[in-house]
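Input.
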Amino acid sequence: MKVVITAGGTGGHIFPALAVIEKLQKEDKTLELLYIGTTDRMEKDLIPKKNIPYVGLKMLGLNRHNPFKNIEVMKTYYRAVKKAKEELQKFKPDIVIGFGGYIEAPVIYAASKLKIKTIIHEQNSIPGVSNKFLARYVDKILVSFHESEKYFSKEKTIYTGNPRSEQIKTIKPLFKETLGFKKDLPLIIIVMGSLGSLTMTNKLKDIITSFKNKKYQVLLITGNNYYNSYKDVKIPSNVKIVPFLDNLISYMKDSDLIVTRSGASTIAEITSIGLPAIMVPSPYVTNNHQMMNAKALENDGACKIIEENKFSKETLIPLIDELINNKEELKKMSKAMLKRSKSDSASLIYKEIIKLVRDEENE
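Output.
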């Protein structure tokens, strides 16, 4: 089978794509793969490092602040469609699968015009601009949240969950003692995205000292850009600060609570693990989709929400104290998280790919 994958911009799009690539490689030993991404976002470095054939297209996102700049965006889009058609005609894939980001739009559109089978996967509860645009052109739409089904055609849409969830199930835990934490005290992880956040860094610098003498331990992951911001902060002995952890998911499996954003990848991770969360949705994303993601979990009883503008030691510390001292509540939250997980998501997506490629739905 020959497959083109397209996704770009953020880990929320790229990691689900990689999870499906891993599944395809496992199931199909004759697989031929091509990844089409941008020329300037994280996938341009990440994908080639995994020895996956890669083509980069220049593409710009819509400018919501200055509509006049979208004239150049549209010019770039049409050039990307033309280039994508050339690459697809050269590679001759059986199917093209998009996982979001603005690079997805020209590639999937080009594939549909060439009569190549197409699938898109939506990770968030509110669809992104690219997937809303592409919905009319594709053969199938796969979603991570039941809440997003209403935005798409019933005939095309299938709830599969996020393929990252299945991948996470296979990752082995690492125990907190290997980071120097005590075995008998609860561990809380605080992480605001892989890159970190300036706003949240400024808030957390004021909160750190409030963890002193607490009967729990805190691992704060700052993001590489903000680690040095804490150099003048007096760090309590029960708190450890690191810029980044490659194996964070392994440590999440031996933690009791996480304070985090509510992007699609994060939700796939914590639902798969069943890790209770205090969610601080980023207010800087399209359609406020992180708040909607978090609300879906909150409605299930899986998380608590603190809005970024209300995040402080006065709101965070009492909530952590309350949850850590209430084991029954944490258990309920953990069960609710696990109910949101689809442990066979990548397998379900693989089945849909095969059905479409083989035309089984028309037999």
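Residues 70-91 form the longest helix (22 residues).
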